[in-house]
Structures are given as C-alpha cells and as structure tokens.
C-alpha cells in the first residue's frame, strides 16, 4: 500500500501490538509466511474507516476490511463470533451470520463485551488473536483479495494481510454473501 511511509513486517513491531495479536503472530502457522503480514503505524485518531479513507485516499475503501464482533442468541445461550468483510460492505447479521451460528437472533455485540472478550481496542479489532473458541466468518471477497488493510488490535496502527492468509486462520470458514 503505497500511501503509507513506513510499512514493515508486523513481527518487527510486536511492541506496538496488543498481546493477543502479538501472540497470534508469534504462533503463526499456515501457507503464507508471517513476514507477509505487515504493520503500518497510523495515527489513533484515524482508526475509523471513514477518517482513514479521507486521510489516505478513497481507493483505500476497496482495500480495507472491518472485523466486527457479533452475538448469536438461541434459547438463552449467547455465542460470540467475529465477521470480516470489506469496508465498503456491511455484515449480513440477520441472514448469513444468524444461519451460520444456528442462532434465533443475531446482533452486533455490545462494545464492552467485544472489547473485554478480545483484549483489543474499539476501532482496532482484528481477526488475529481472537479467542480460540470463536468462529471467524470471512467473506469470500476478503479471502479473494490480494491483501487487505485491517485493524491491529489497537486504534494505533493497521495490518496489511494477504486475503488468503485470513482464509487460513483457525476457525475461519469463507462465506459467500457475508458482506452485502
């Protein structure tokens, strides 16, 4: 991503990452080498997608993905999952997510729940370092992207990750139509 001045392998910047994300990078497995996961140091005030796009250029909207935490409810039981979709789409919570989780009702998890369960900051939740028992639902458009810009676990900084690496994360089925 040419808009950023300082792009480095994320494993060289573990000191700037929250512990769950740093641990995920230290334990990296898969077909994509860990040094292809890049870190970009950005201003924490530019963490939100709209501000990031305004600051770095409209083309970034097509190359960014958002990770959101959802809560599925069935019979008094609540299960949490994460969804990763391109930033110019929205998560099909009441369709694809609800069906995949086998939930009667699905909604975005409350912010306090999402942050407490992930150990990450609002505006920086990322699929790397999520609780191991959570499903990570990945939209096929993300998996098919050469690379996407995603959160780093904190508001400061972003990760640039090949889409195929995200599709290889544990517990990450790739779904058509997750992002609509």
UniProtKB/TrEMBL annotation:
Q: Which residues form the signal peptide?
A: none
Q: Which Pfam families match?
A: tRNA_edit
Could you name the domain of life of the organism this protein comes from?
A: Bacteria
Domain YbaK/aminoacyl-tRNA synthetase-associated, chain residue ranges per copy: 48-168
Q: Coiled-coil annotation: which residues?
A: none
Fetch the InterPro entries from UniProt: YbaK/aa-tRNA-synt-asso_dom_sf, YbaK/aa-tRNA-synth-assoc-dom
Q: What is this protein called?
A: YbaK/aminoacyl-tRNA synthetase-associated domain-containing protein
Q: What is the lineage of its organism?
A: Bacteria, Bacillati, Actinomycetota, Actinomycetes, Kitasatosporales
């Amino acid at each position: 991503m040419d808009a950023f001045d300082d792009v480095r392998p994320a494993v060289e910047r573990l000191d700037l990452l929250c512990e769950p994300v740093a641990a995920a990078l230290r334990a990296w497995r898969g077909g994509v080498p860990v040094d292809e996961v890049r870190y970009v140091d950005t201003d924490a005030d530019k963490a939100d997608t709209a501000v990031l796009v305004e600051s770095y250029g409209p083309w970034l909207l097509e190359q960014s993905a958002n990770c959101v935490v959802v809560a599925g409810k069935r019979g008094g039981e609540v299960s949490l999952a994460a969804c990763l979709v391109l930033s110019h789409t929205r998560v099909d919570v009441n369709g694809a997510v609800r069906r995949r989780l086998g939930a009667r009702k699905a909604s975005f998890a409350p912010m306090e729940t999402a942050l407490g369960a992930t150990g990450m900051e609002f505006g920086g939740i990322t699929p790397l370092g999520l609780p191991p028992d959570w499903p990570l639902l990945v939209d096929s458009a993300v998996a098919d992207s050469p690379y996407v810009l995603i959160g780093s676990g904190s508001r400061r900084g972003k990760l640039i990750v090949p889409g195929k690496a995200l599709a290889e994360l544990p517990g990450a089925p790739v779904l058509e139509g997750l992002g609509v």
